Amino acid sequence: MIEQNHSVEDNHIKFLKNWTLPIAIVIGIILYFIFHLVPFLSPIAKWYAPYNGNVLPDFMFLILFVIFCKVDFRKLLPVKWHFWICLQQILFVFSLVGVIVAFKLHNEALIMLEAILVCIIGPCAAATAVKCLDITWNTNCEGRLLTIY
Questions:
Q1: Residue 58 belongs to what H/E stretch?
Q2: Quick count: other Cβ atoms within 10 Å of Cβ 131?
Q3: Contact yes or no for 60/130 (Cβ under 8 A)
Q4: DSSP track, 72-120
Q5: pLDDT at residue 137 above 50?
Q6: Which residues of 82-94 are buried (b: 16+ CB within 10 A; e: fewer)?
Q7: Is 71 helix (H, G, I), strand (E, B) or coil?
Q8: pLDDT at 130 over 90
Q9: Mean of the per-residue pLDDT values for the chain?
Q10: How many CB atoms lie within 10 A of CB 109?
């Protein structure tokens, strides 16, 4: 009976690990549309706007910090393509910042390019955490460990 309870708990934990991200994405999309389409909630959204502007960097830091606390840095081996990816990311960021500065963008255009910057920077940082988790938990690596950075 006790072994069966552990199996059920393991299944629940496995389910949560596999479905947490998709469920969080769907909930985020639903909440976005609720706040966007329901006029009654507009004042609440405006009240939270300053807080929401600072949340992304804080959460990215926490995600990376917690993940890197579990990583054995002696196993991280940089390879040549890592540097090419970093170079491309840096070029994209400087290009977008150059467009913002050169055209003195503001209002909607500035917000759009800032969103594109987040799309360039954010996934790279999040992918690092995912790959490092894979390295930390994967015991069948055959001695070849790769990371994004």
A1: helix 42-68
A2: 19
A3: no
A4: -GGG----HHHHHHHHHHHHHHHHHHHHHHHTT--HHHHHHHHHHHHHH
A5: no
A6: eeeeeeeeeeeee
A7: coil
A8: no
A9: 75
A10: 13
d(CA 122, CA 117): 8
Write out the two tokens for 145.
């460990």
Type and span of the H or E element at 17: helix 2-37
In angstroms, rounded to a whole number, what is the distance separating the alpha carbons of residues 5 and 27? 30
**Using CA atoms, how far apart are residues 99 and 36, in angstroms rounded to an integer?**
29
DSSP class of residue 70? Answer: T
Surface-to-core class of residue 103, CB atoms within 10 Å of its CB (0-12 exposed, 13-18 middle, 19+ buried): exposed
> What confidence category does residue 30 fall into, taking pLDDT thresholds of 50, 70 and 90?
very high
Distance CA 141, CA 11 (A): 25
Residue 132 has pLDDT above 60, yes or no: no
* CA dihedral (13, 14, 15, 18) positive or negative: positive
Residue 134 contacts residue 69 (beta carbons within 8 Å):
no
